[in-house]
Amino acid sequence: MTFEYAKYLDEKDELKNFRRKFYMPTIKGNPVIYFCGNSLGLQPVKAKEYFEAELEDWATLGVEGHFHGRNPWLHYHKSFTNSLTKITGAKISEVVAMNTLTTNLHLLLTTFYRPTSKRYKIITEAGSFSSDIYALNSQVKLHGRNPKKTIIELKPRKGEYTLRTEDIVKQIERNKGSLALVMMGGVNYYTGQAFD
Predict the structure, then answer these.
(1) Rounded distance between C-alpha atoms, residue 50 and residue 65, angstroms
(2) DSSP states of 101-139
(3) CA–CA separation, 39 vs 37, rounded Å?
(4) Angle CA(183)–CA(118)–CA(165) in degrees, nearest 5?
(5) Is the pTM higher than 0.85?
(6) What mean pLDDT comes out for the span 112-140?
């Protein structure tokens, strides 16, 4: 592919105008190519406007912003329900947008991590998002266990960058007598690996 052909494809791209909807960072005054959309992503140009509107409603309405704000807060979570059903394939009654990732992990772990004297170990992938590991560590400590002896972090084979499904299954089999939980994201935030 030539540079000219790449420019031609850029011109034909239906999404080319979306670039203007985001602030593009610079380093030492030079524009950069930004591929880090897995966590924070780029700031939308409209973000400040939206935040300021919410802050203004809070300042002028106080608690009444729950009912009388430009975007009333009481049922704010419902505005995401239809989008979430399309992403997850779930029913409207089965999804809700709430809390932060770490809070939701704590809620899930409180429900699903029920260690016993024999079954207490947790399997997760090494290099999980930091807050995932913090949540696992705090839940393990809450149950009086040592995270280093309880949490099994799976790493790719030497010279590889992603986990093999067979290696995950092998660790589950190896630890089946002491395993209480397997917690892995659908997609590793760092490598982009989608797990089976």
Answers:
(1) 14
(2) HHHHHHHHHHHH----SS--EEEEETT--HHHHHHHHHH
(3) 6
(4) 35
(5) no
(6) 93
